[in-house]
Amino acid sequence: MINTIAIDDEPLALQLVAGYIEKTPGLNLVGKFDNPLDAVDFMADQTVDLIFVDIQMPDLTGIEFTRAMAKGPRVIFTTAYEKYALEGFRLDVVDYLLKPFSYEEFFKAVQKALRLIRLEQKAEMNQVDANSEFLFLKSEYKIRRINFNDILYIEGLKDYVKVYTKNDPKPVLSLTSLKLLESKLPESTFMRIHRSFIVNLEKIETIERSRIVFGKVYIPVSDQYKEKFQEFVNKNFL
Hints:
The chain is of the alpha/beta class. It has seven helices and 15 strands. The longest helix is centred in the middle third of the chain and has 28 residues.
């Protein structure tokens, strides 16, 4: 299933797209928003594969939203204006649905998106299988190889991440999202324990009052992830 959200400040248009998503095989509607800023907040913690977004909206337009978003979800524009088609092409969106559009037009755009997403997912799986012990990150105009075994913890800062390793006092700074990086890490070794932190479970030596201690750094385990982390602790508790 492809996790999908819809963003439109017009209630009827939002309801229409949400209804189309819900009746389309392969799509899973995980959220609908009348404000793109709410969608940004939602996507910080949730995996989203495909976004239907209107262009003309207050506060943040669909184009600004797409331009600012880290690489990850595929985007289909829904708009009443033809003049933004070129900008959509520049932003590499999957398709451009001109309002009012029929379900047939919607379905064709979805099929195009599904083909792209599944190809990308297959490529990512093959890459993870091939590079099961490390990944490459762009950092300071270089491409850095990061061995999983060297990572202590990872901190997310909006569109950036800081990767802290055992052999380097300075973190590796990379322009990507914490959510995208999390998808590249082996689940058996790494765990999200806070909205802004992922830790290497094999590197945990001290836990103090629902906080994980790395030297002088204290990382809190938030309520959202506490149960899952406690299960890990219980499995290894003597």
